[in-house]
Amino acid sequence: MEENKEKCIGKLIHSRIPIEWMRYNMYIEDDRYRNIPMLVFRVQDSCPENIIDSLKKCVDTFKGNLNWKMFKDPLSRKGNYLITISELEVLHRECCAGRVQYNQIDFWGAEKYKKYCDDAIQDIPMLEKHIEETL
Prior knowledge:
Number of domains: 1
Structural class: alpha+beta
Shape: globular
Order of helices and strands: HEEHEEHHH
């Protein structure tokens, strides 16, 4: 499970849900602090709504170092979903409302940002296991 942690959740979800497009890497191991880990994907039109609801509920109920959320990205014109830490949903909403520029480090400060990255990366294998057992 440790191997290829950055793609494990994407591969699991792709095996269970009809995906139109996905950026499998949640983060880049060689550049851990480039972004807070997130899975970005879009489902096929044929995807039943209840599957999306089940995945959302599954992610939203996961308890790790951080709280995780699945939400439609308000910054996406194509209806992409994000699976990431709940704090990132706040940044996306604030940015969409025009209150802030999208900059993760400026929004939380470097120290908190790095802690979010580290904690999120640590949560990924547990989140994968939670999705596998719940979905």
